[in-house]
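Lab notes, practical 5.
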Amino acid sequence: METLPPTLPELPPPPPEPDDFLPRIPEPYDSGWKRVLFRFFFEVIDFFFPALGILIDRNVAPVFLDTELKQISPGGRIGHRRSDALVKVQLVSGSQQILFCHLELQTKEDQTIAERSFVYAFRIYEKFGTFPITLLLLADTNASFRPSTFELAPTKLAGVSFRFLSAKTMDFVPALDDLGVSDKVIAQVLWVYLTHQQEKTRIRKVRVSRVQEWFLVKTRIMRHLVSLNIDDKLISEVLWFLDWIIHLPQAYEKSYTTIQIGEQRKKEGTVAFVSSYERVFKKEGKIEALQETIISILDKKYGLSTEERELVTTCDNLQTLKDVQDAAVFGTSKDEALDHFSDEIED
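Output from the prediction step:
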């Protein structure tokens, strides 16, 4: 199987932006992965941590403890990134277990991650009286960076050894073709993620028409996903993930969405699922206005980082933006407003 299906569309892209204009491809991608974790929790555990998966009772639904996690980590962040989940599960033995899932999706290894994981595990222990199992999903490309323990030994006589489980996305690169034909939603999510990483490396070397390159990549990936013999609802989730990773200028998104709808109509003659960007046709003006208003209010009241601005500009959910605007105007803190973006993913 080719990593990307060939040839493109009957519909040409709109005129390109200036050559130095890049699509908005926000990093980190943690919120997209967190949505996948919330909606396909057991599948994520089975895929990346199979030894743990066999210990969990599937007849008992997982309980996500995000309110409790925010009490431990204000704003639900570690290193200013929304990337964590606290989950209570029941084991087949009958006992309950808390899992601390940390999605460390950055391209360079973080040498502090073991220590930070220990700190949060201890805070969880203080709150619940039980020590969590910590799971790390790492997306760096350093094959030798595989943290699994944190040693705290003030003297040779005594100390602490903290162990956790970690998985690396790069370990699946040799199986990329197999991922692309898998009927598992997590395999397809990972295929999209790794394919994007490979294309990102290639497009960095392109001197001109980078926006068009990303348009072609996104369209090819979408066509591959639509062609799969997988339940439409599952494919719609992977398409949502694709939208999260690759954000194009609005004119290109319109062309992309038109092509996607056409591809979906070819499949059994119906439009069974739609891209989140189909809403662009109806709401683009209102969404942009809300985004600009929110950024203006929050920046004047509290100041906004680049990452926080991206959080606003990459949200296309009209109701979420209205809620954020109300919190920005009437709330008492920046986090009170920005936390609504986490709520959107968890719904």
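Observations recorded by the TA: The first helix runs from residue 30 to 39. Confidence is low (pLDDT under 50) at residues 1-29, 74-82, 275-282.
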